[in-house]
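Minutes, project check-in
Item: structure for the 92-residue chain
Input as provided by the requester:
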Amino acid sequence: MRQYRRSLLSLIAAIDRWQRMYGEKDDGSAEQAKSLLLQLSDKLAVKAVNNPNADPIKSVTGLWLCPVCGASFTKPELAKLCRDAHHNQQSA
């Protein structure tokens, strides 16, 4: 999983270099591609962990992800609350 995630991040970096070299076209396709790759990267990170006892995952976008469902939050404490809610739901 980590190898796939690194490959996705390499693709995002390549898109950034392409944009700097050639300029972005008005259609915004490069930004849309980067956004989709970032979302996929986050999903792979969550899938690799998928553990209700794990710490929240820091996304490449700077957000914090719940290690169970992948919901994104601005603070790690909120991601921990989400994780704990899943844990409580499973144990009930």
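Outcome recorded: The mean pLDDT is 79.
No further action items on this chain.
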